[in-house]
Amino acid sequence: MNSTQLYEMRPEELTQAMLHALVYHYERAQDSTIAERNRHLRQARELLVKLHQGLHDGGGIIAAQLDEIYLYMANASIEAIIDQDKQKIAELHTLASDLDQTWSEAMERAKLQPVPTGGNRYENYQ
User: Fold this and answer.
1) At residue 124, what are phi and psi to the nearest 5 degrees?
2) Whose CA is closest to 40, among 59, 27, 53, 51?
3) Distance CA 32, CA 93 (A)
4) Over the chain, what is the mean pLDDT?
5) Among candidate residues 113, 111, 116, 107, the one with its CA nearest the CA of residue 12
6) How many helices and strands (H and E) does the chain possess?
7) pLDDT digits (tens, 9 = 90+) for 91-115
8) What is the mean pLDDT of residues 71-90?
9) Cα–Cα distance measured from residue 89 to residue 96, given in angstroms and rounded to the nearest whole number
10) 14, 25, 121, 124 — which has fewest CB within 10 A?
11) 43: closest CA among 30, 25, 17?
12) Residues 119, 121, 124, 126, CA torsion sign
């Protein structure tokens, strides 16, 4: 993926791409040499920082829950680097896979929802 493709992505597509990459790095970290494992865990942590930065206060309860999950995973990634804990990496891989799958399902459901048109944005909520 090149920078032009990244700039053309909608925010939800960019989030999906980052979650795919997160799963990839945790998957690779499970069966790598120590140096490679550490590199993949650092890259996963960087992705989590970017995902965390993309959250905003107006996101409500879901954003607050994602905030907690991203922070937990970022801290656990550091612990996995320090302790070389493969069980922790497997747990992180499972969490990342669940997030990725849930995000993909949400995007599919959003495609099926009709988009409200016309009026002001408050009239569309009842």
Assistant:
1) -80, -5
2) 27
3) 14
4) 88
5) 107
6) 5, 0
7) 999 999 999 999 999 888 888 877 6
8) 96
9) 10
10) 121
11) 25
12) negative
Please list, residue by residue across 9-31, b when 16 or more beta carbons sit within 10 angstroms of its beta carbon and e when fewer do. Answer: eeeeebbbebbebbbbbbbbbee
Contact predicate 86/26, CB 8 Å: no
Structure tokens at 11: 């925010």
pTM of the model as a whole: 0.82
Higher pLDDT, 88 or 112: 88
Gap between the Cα atoms of 52 and 39, Å rounded: 20
Instruction: With beta carbons less than 8 A apart as the criterion, state whether 93 and 26 touch.
Output: yes
Q: Name 104's Cβ contacts closer than 8 Å, sequence gap at least 6.
A: 16
Tokens of 108: 């599919």
Q: What is the mean pLDDT of residues 44-50?
A: 96
Backbone dihedral region for residue 84 (phi beyond 0: left; psi -120 to 50: alpha; all else: beta): left
* Confidence band, pLDDT 50/70/90 cuts, at residue 48: very high
Residue with tokens 């494992």: 37
For residue 33, the SS3 value is: coil
What's the pLDDT score for residue 7?
74
